[in-house]
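Example 3.2
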Amino acid sequence: MSATTLGNHKLGWIGTGRMGFAMAARVAKAGGNLAAYNRTRAKAEPLTEYGATIVDKPVDLADREIVFVMVSASEDLLSVTLGKDGVLSRPDRAPKILVDCSTVSQEASAELREAAAKRGTQLLAAPVSGNGKVVKAGKLSVVASGPRDAYDTVLPYLECLGRGSSYVGEGDVSRIVKICHNVFLGAVIQSLVEITVLAEKAGVPRHAFLDFINKSVMGSLFTGYKTPSLVNLDMTPTFTPYLLRKDLELGLAAARALDVSMPLCAATKEIVQSLIGSGHVDDDFASLILLQAQHSGLDIKPENVKVDDGLH
């Protein structure tokens, strides 16, 4: 995708962690006029290889037309936007559009939307589905809500992030869509590790069982790209149990507010809490298979088998 296709907007990017860096790199590589901030500057510096510039504070991006935000939690979002040195802290200048790709609470998003509107800034809530590997493979997906004209302006940049985006309406409705997505993520990974341990304890190698699942009607992009972790027990984090617990709690909070019964979400949240209590705080959430094996009396080992993650 060329810079002409993308447009000539001055872009800002806040947050270059595992996901944010990969996303910002795609925009910069596609020719986007990008300036970036990260709390740990060294994590943003490699973006200069693709033509991006690095700034020292979020407020240094106030003169950018469109600013993307990709941070871990609601308090981080409010800090980098509304806090001291936040991108909206200058009285004389603010971006025209903020695109928040983080998974945060609806309350935090509503607070930011109201504050941004007072500054004449449109907020597009645009949480994403995937991880760093998915971004690099061009398979990230985005769900967006907010002013339709802001979405149309930002759409070329969203599309260069991966598989495309879905516009679901005004306001913050994309937040509940992403929360529902991550509740589903938790339920699917727990179900997947349960049946995988069951099959292995019955004598089926994990790689063979998951190969069948991935080729069946139950296989998905998700089951495919988690297969190497489950087979070889590589728990290098793409999404931690802490982050999964946060999203399950957001789902349960939304369910209470709307009087929706979610027993599976509640049970999964307690299992993830048990995983955290067992010390797997810095591992990938696929480490749920280790907990499942332990509870099932199975001494699980890496199979050291090369398997396809379905991303290439």
